[in-house]
Amino acid sequence: MSSSPYPSLVLTQQIFTRYGCPLIVVIGCLGNLLNIFLLRRKTLRTVSCNNWIVPSIYVADRPWAMTEAYCKSRNYLLNASQQISRFMVVTACFDRFALCSTNVRLRQFSRVQIARQYMIPAIIIIWLIAPIYMLIFHTGVNNSCTYIGTVALFNSIYGITLVGFTPPCLMFIFSLLTFRNL
Predict the structure, then answer these.
(1) Residue 18 sits in which domain range?
(2) What's this model's pTM, rounded to 2 decimal places?
(3) Within 10 A of 54 (CB to CB), how many other CB atoms are there?
(4) Contact at 8 Å (CB) between 83 and 130?
(5) 95-120, pLDDT tens digit by residue?
(6) Is 133 domain-assigned?
(7) How far is residue 65's CA from residue 3's CA, in Å, rounded to a whole number?
(8) How many domains does one find in the chain?
(9) Which of 13, 16, 56, 70 could form a disulfide with 88 if both were Cys (CB 3.0 to 4.6 A apart)?
(10) Is residue 2 part of a domain?
């Protein structure tokens, strides 16, 4: 991590990375095992919720040589694909909430046709545009990728809010709302 004029945000990001990420990995592995067990059923392959889960599995991190172009494209593509993955899962939670709703208009969102024509492309487009600043401001310094100046602050805020806070909170909220509707 680069030196930053915002040490408390950098420290918060480091603490979240050190302690939060391993917890998320463990919970994610358990969830993935349950998903594999559950989604192997033939009857569940046509459920609209699977449209959100399947695209979320295509995320990987491959460390290669640190060039300027590699730094920019790697961080952009990694962030965009991870955010697409996260928000596909958030949308799966919303899909289950919409399906259980008593509101007829809200239930329309849980149709496979709506998911494939509108929701999935919208999520992909949004998360290909949102992290575009990474292509512009990311730099390779001393064989590591970093941000300099106020972009480091913006990236820390972006990481804490849109990566670490918003998706789990939305998943939790939609899960509670689904549970309430059952």
Answers:
(1) 7-181
(2) 0.63
(3) 12
(4) yes
(5) 989 988 888 888 888 888 888 889 89
(6) yes
(7) 22
(8) 1
(9) 56
(10) no
Q: Which residues contact 83 (CB under 8 A, 6 or more apart)?
A: 127, 130, 131, 162, 163
Report residue 88 CA to chain centroid gap.
Answer: 7
Q: What is the CATH number of the domain that holds 31?
A: 1.20.1070.10
Geometric angle at alpha carbon 58, from 173 and 22, rounded to 5°: 60
For the segment 141-173, what is each residue's pLDDT rounded down to a tens digit? 666 677 888 888 888 888 889 988 999 999 999
Q: Is the pLDDT of residue 15 over 70?
A: yes
Task: Give 79-132 as a DSSP string.
Answer: HHHHHHHHHHHHHHHHHHHHHH-S-HHHHGGGSHHHIIIIIHHHHHHHHHHGGG
Are the CB atoms for 116 and 51 separated by under 8 Å? yes
- Exposed/middle/buried for residue 161 (C-beta within 10 Å: 0-12, 13-18, 19+): exposed
Distance of alpha carbon 1 from alpha carbon 52, whole angstroms: 33
Q: State the CB neighbour count (10 A cutoff) for residue 44.
A: 12
Q: Count the Cβ atoms, other than its own, within 10 Å of residue 106.
A: 15
Asked if residue 1 is part of any domain, the answer here is no
Q: Is residue 83, in this structure, part of any structural domain at all?
A: yes
112 close to 51: Cβ distance less than 8 angstroms = yes
Per-position b or e across 122-156, b if 16+ CB within 10 A of its CB:
ebbeebeeebeebeebbebeeeebbbeeebbeebb
